[in-house]
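WARN  no MSA supplied for this record, continuing single-sequence
INFO  ligand: aspartic acid
INFO  echoing inputs
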Amino acid sequence: MTKLMIIYTGGTVGMIYDEKNRSLRPISFGEIRDHLPELYRLGYHFFVHPFKPPIDSSNMHPDRWVELVEIIEQHYHYYDGFVILHGSDTMAFTASALSFMLENLSKPVVLTGSQLPIGQIRTDAKENIITALEIAATRINGHAAVPEVCIYFDFQLFRGNRTKKYNAEKFEAFYSMNYPPLAEAGITIKYHQPFILPPPTEPIRFHKKLDPHVSVLKIFPGITPETVDAILNTPHSRAIILETFGSGNAPTAAWFIRSLEKAIKKGKIILNITQCDGGSVELGRYETSEKLLEIGVVSGYDMTFEAAITKTMFLLGQDLSTEEIICLLQRPLRGELTLPESTNSKAVHSYWTNSPLS
Ligand code: ASP
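INFO  complex generated
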């Protein structure tokens, strides 16, 4: 019998509307189960580990990611797959963080949640939970169909570290602009094999060290030297995610470049990702990014903000030199970025151009 572990962290998926207080309040997994009798018909063996109390995902924290990794580690060999019920607001951060912390994953870790609470008639929670469980249980040619950390939401399965919550209202709350869905659920669940990571050849490694000393500098026309300097000089911050325009462009003003250069000389890492949801940083393509390249700003290519933040926390937490961190930031570790000239880049490109959705 397929054995699955459900980790219930909280989120809308496990909330009901409290008439008295006129707000959503969290419920226990027992109450979720009462709303989901279909669970028993799936024919799997379940073990449920609830967060006590369940949390709104706005309160998610790197310490809780470590806790999730510890829970998975303790049960890894016993279960065929893991489903994490999680609030949608920070689900993409958790999925990204776990993807880096679980190296050589051979079992599915599927995060899901919902936009409407499970107690509501039109809820999307039931479909999301049931299909996430089915995906976590599916094996193809003797291997887990999706040996990855992924997000299942509204009939689509995405690689976790490629996903973004982009809509607070639609059932289709997530998208993955730079990487095709790993599977789509209709009458059957169709897996897009070429885009799913192959099963690992090395044993799993559980990483439990993260360093959250990362800052974010999101530029905008008119940003002042005071703001830039305050962020670049945040005490204890070891890396800065620089959110730039378009394909990695930023103001060419001398004061701006000088500030970045000073921070780099002090040993800080500056990682350039684009403010656009789709596309990649291409340092040197325009004059407005040439200087960044010259002073040692690092390209984050097509990484999401969520992947950039969590990958940086992960690498800072390992025992690595600044040079090693810079090198690894620019390489795909868990499929979180596509290098422009890679074979993968061609496959992704042809998916979008042939897709009926494009
Ligand atoms: N605030 C909720 C959370 O992220 C929203 C949701 O679950 O959709 O926990």
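The chain is about 30% helix and 25% strand.
INFO  checksum written, moving to next record
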